[in-house]
Specification:
The structure is a homodimer. By secondary structure, chain A is α/β, with parallel strands linked by helices. The first copy, chain A, is built from 7 helices and 5 strands; from the N terminus they run H-H-H-E-H-E-H-E-H-E-E-H. In chain A, strands 3-4-5 form a 3-stranded parallel β-sheet, covered by helices on one side. Chain A has a two-stranded parallel ribbon with strand order 1-2. At the A-B interface, helix 1 of A face helix 1 of B.
């Protein structure tokens, strides 16, 4: 529609719609559900995997549709602050993935060409769109989903992130 | 992602994804399901309602995300050819609703201002976005859905189209 609000607003709006659709009006539950977004755990293999990337001399970054405050809270909650060199939010460009301006933001901020970025997502649409933009992509297909029917094609698939360092040549 | 394919392609892609997700590979069923899109019925109140609009001197039009061939087939199958002055497809602008360029297409083709168009949709997102663009909108809320949380607000709601002529002042 050509207008933008951030992911905290979108998440709350979607929750309000869902609550209304099932006839619930429970402000305490709504608050609890929203707060859970601020204390997300990482998957168990993530901390060690990030440590291996950084030990191998690579820069690490999140590129997320989440709002900055959501990302800061989630990174801190998952104790990943020291494992990440950059936490990039789409709010800096004011439009959500899969718009190519978001992927461009990462290349610009990291000061590298798109093909120098190895991008991972468990969202198939994100993996395919990032590949279409020019990133090298490993689709973390945790739930054995079928491929998307959109432009782009991930270079590789993994079931989780544990084998990523080996896949990209780190010991 | 900045690329566009028409709704026939999107519909087939979505069906292929859904079939793959449940492990089905049945080309005959796929063909039958796609063909059903070409022989959609109108809701029962529609022919008489359109007749009253035209008897009242109003121009009638479809403004649809569907591809032209899909619309032509569906209009013919529902025997609405003589009841419609215009059948407008988003393919003429190459982007789907709710992009405002689609609503602009209708105003341009009909040669009227947005507020001179009375727009109906049972898709809440379409009704809200059309209102945000500037149409007068009656949301045909057939399934008693909660309101969307997006810009715009339909002027009125109806459960079906039967009462539309009276609502807009026709006898």
């Amino acid at each position: 529609m050509g207008t933008h609000v951030d992911f905290w607003q979108v998440t709350g709006d979607a929750l309000d719609f869902a609550l209304a659709a099932v006839g619930l009006d429970d402000p305490a539950m709504r608050r609890r559900l929203m707060d859970l977004y601020l204390e997300l755990d990482a998957y168990p293999e993530v901390p060690a995997m990030l440590g291996r990337l950084k030990a191998g001399g690579l820069a690490t970054a999140i590129l997320s549709n989440g709002a900055p405050a959501m990302l800061d809270a989630a990174v801190e909650s998952a104790r990943l602050t020291d494992s990440l060199d950059h936490v990039l939010s789409v709010e800096d460009v004011g439009i959500f993935k899969p718009d190519p301006r978001v992927y461009r933001l990462a290349a610009d901020r990291l000061g590298v060409a798109p093909h120098e970025i190895c991008f991972q997502s468990s969202n198939a649409w994100d993996a395919f769109a990032a590949s279409h933009f020019g990133f090298r992509v490993v689709w973390i297909n945790r739930f054995n989903q079928p491929p998307e029917r959109i432009p782009g094609a991930p270079d590789r698939q993994l079931g989780d992130l544990a084998a990523l360092p080996e896949l990209i040549g780190l010991s």
